[in-house]
Amino acid sequence: MTANRSAGLAIETVPHALLTARDLEGLRALFDAEYLADFGAWDPELPYGYAPHDVHIVARVGSEVVGHVGWQRRVIGVGGADVVIAGVGGVLVSSGARGQGVANRLMTRAATSMTDAGDIGFGYLGCREEVVPFYESCGWRSISAGERSLDRRGEPVEQIAGPPILILPLDPARADWPSGSIDLRGRAW
Q1: What is the pLDDT of residue 6?
Q2: Are 14 and 24 in contact (CB under 8 A)?
Q3: Residue 153 DSSP label
Q4: Beta strands 165-169 and 122-126: pairing type?
Q5: Residue 67 dihedral angles phi and psi, to the nearest 5°
Q6: What region, left, alpha or beta, does residue 163 occupy, with left being phi > 0 and alpha being psi -120 to 50 degrees?
Q7: What's the N-to-C CA distance of the chain in angstroms?
Q8: Exposed/middle/buried for 33, CB within 10 Å: 0-12, 13-18, 19+?
Q9: If phi over 0 gives left and psi between -120 and 50 gives alpha, with beta otherwise, what is residue 87?
Q10: 3, 117, 152, 173 - which has most CB atoms within 10 Å?
Q11: Are 90 and 68 in contact (CB under 8 A)?
Q12: By the 8 A CB rule, do 157 and 148 touch?
């Protein structure tokens, strides 16, 4: 993306049920350009074996999809508490649009959409260590906890504390993350 093209950037929030065939085509092209060789074709209902998204934040320049963040509302277990989260995944910016602030704008819009949805206490995501500084620059904070989830085959997985987990408090009245191990009660994002 050139500086001129970044000026034409549009970001929209699209509920999963309202994705059009054209939206799906653009998202498939974005994801397959990055992951096809390693993971096969993108499937919006089970993206690379992870949990699907309820809401998609889509960045476009003209009709071309150049970025995406998805999230799914879910009640998870943390220690002995139930916590309502928006599990975030599918954070991707096309190679031609990187370095233009698109990812930051997508994450800002995602946070707004999670807050606007109401009754969600935290954004939640897991990531690679090398991208933690980016998420922290967007207001997310690292936590350390063991995590239970289901893998791509639907089998239980227990991960000891260590791999990056980040949260984004969405409700000032519930800004403290409870202590204890995390049960995602489903697939990770």
Answers
A1: 56
A2: no
A3: T
A4: antiparallel
A5: -165, 160
A6: beta
A7: 27
A8: middle
A9: beta
A10: 117
A11: yes
A12: yes
Question: pLDDT averaged over the chain?
Answer: 93
Question: Which residue do the tokens 């599990």 mark?
Answer: 87
Whole-angstrom distance, CA of residue 143 vs CA of residue 165? 6
Q: Please check whether residue 39 is in contact with residue 33, taking contact to mean a CB–CB distance below 8 angstroms.
A: no
Alpha-carbon dihedral of residues 51, 28, 30, 141, nearest 10 degrees? -10
Q: How many residues does the chain have?
A: 189
Which residue spans within the chain are E strands per DSSP? 9-15, 55-61, 64-78, 81-93, 122-126, 141-143, 147-150, 156-159, 165-169, 182-187
- Mode of pairing for the β-strands spanning 182-187 and 147-150: parallel
Q: Are 5 and 67 in contact (CB under 8 A)?
A: no
Query: Do residues 91 and 103 touch, judged by C-beta distance below 8 A?
Result: yes
Instruction: Indicate the DSSP class of residue 145.
Output: -
Tens digit of pLDDT for each residue in 4-58?
345 699 999 999 999 999 999 999 999 999 999 999 999 999 898 899 999 999 9
